C-alpha cells in the first residue's frame, strides 16, 4: 500500500491534479514547486485535513548533490518513500523549435537531465528498502492534431530512460513505468462549449471529454497494480492509437 510520495513539478496543471488525487487516496505527499509563492498558494488552498498530509518545498538547482539531498531528506521526514512521480509541463515542442532551435535543444537536454537526476535519487532511496515505484506521466503525441501540445523529443527520451532504468532497478523490486494520457478538456478551450469536443466526435459517436482532474485518476492503475510490471508505457484515456 502506498503511504508516501514525492511529486516533482507540482506547479503545473497536471502536477496539481496529481497532487490532489494522491491526497484523496490518503497518501502523504512532498510536493516540489519552482518558486515559494506557488508552494504557499497551493497549500493555502487545501482543506485543513489535507494540509497535514502535505509538505511543500521549492526545488533546488538541478545539481546531483542538491537533488540527492532533497530526495533523501524528504524520505527521512516522511519516514519512507514509496512513490516518485516526475511531473512535467506539457509544452509544444514544435513551436519552441521554430522560435529558437538552439534554446529548444538546450531546454530538451535540461528536462531529460532533470528526469535522470531526480529519478536516480529516488531509485537509490527505494533500492535500499527493496520496494517502490517511479512513474513518468506524459501526454500522447498523437493529440497534436487536435490542438494539444506535443513533446515527442522529451517523450521518446523519457521512454528510453524508463526502459533502461527499469532493468537497472528490477533486482531491487523497484518498478519504473511511464503513463501516457489521452485528451482532456483544456482550460483555454473551456468556454468554447461545443467546439471543444467537436474534434473528438467520430460520426455519431461522442466519447466523453474528461477534465484534467478526472484524467489524473488513471494513476490509480499503476498505484494499485504497478508493482507487477516495469519498463512499460501504459496508456490511459481517449484519443490514443491502440497498439495490439
From TrEMBL:
One Pfam match: adh_short_C2
Domain of life: Bacteria
Cited InterPro entries: NAD(P)-bd_dom_sf, SDR_fam
Record-linked SUPFAM superfamilies: NAD(P)-binding Rossmann-fold domains
Protein name stated in the entry: NAD(P)-dependent dehydrogenase, short-chain alcohol dehydrogenase family
Amino acid at each position: 500500500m502506498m503511504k508516501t510520495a514525492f511529486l516533482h513539478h507540482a506547479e503545473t496543471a497536471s502536477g496539481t491534479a496529481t497532487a490532489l488525487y494522491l491526497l484523496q487516496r490518503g497518501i502523504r505527499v512532498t510536493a516540489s514547486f519552482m518558486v515559494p509563492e506557488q508552494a504557499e498558494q497551493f497549500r493555502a488552498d487545501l482543506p485543513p485535513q489535507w494540509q497535514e498530509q502535505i509538505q511543500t518545498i521549492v526545488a533546488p538547482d538541478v545539481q546531483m548533490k542538491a537533488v540527492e539531498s532533497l530526495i533523501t531528506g524528504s524520505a527521512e521526514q516522511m519516514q519512507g518513500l514509496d512513490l516518485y512521480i516526475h511531473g512535467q509541463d506539457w509544452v509544444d515542442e514544435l513551436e519552441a523549435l521554430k522560435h529558437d532551435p538552439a534554446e529548444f535543444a538546450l531546454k530538451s537536454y535540461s528536462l531529460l537531465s532533470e528526469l535522470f537526476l531526480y529519478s536516480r535519487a529516488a531509485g537509490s532511496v527505494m533500492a535500499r528498502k527493496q520496494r517502490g515505484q517511479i512513474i513518468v506521466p506524459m501526454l500522447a503525441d498523437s493529440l497534436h492534431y487536435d490542438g494539444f501540445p506535443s513533446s515527442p523529443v522529451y517523450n521518446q527520451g523519457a521512454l528510453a530512460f524508463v526502459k533502461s532504468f527499469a532493468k537497472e532497478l528490477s533486482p531491487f523490486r523497484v518498478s519504473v513505468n511511464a503513463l501516457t494520457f489521452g485528451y482532456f478538456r483544456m482550460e483555454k478551450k473551456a468556454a468554447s462549449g461545443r467546439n471543444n469536443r467537436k474534434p473528438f466526435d467520430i460520426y455519431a459517436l461522442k466519447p466523453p471529454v474528461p477534465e484534467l482532474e478526472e484524467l489524473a485518476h488513471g494513476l490509480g492503475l499503476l498505484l494499485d497494480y504497478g508493482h507487477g510490471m516495469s519498463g512499460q508505457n501504459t496508456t490511459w484515456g481517449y484519443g490514443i492509437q491502440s497498439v495490439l
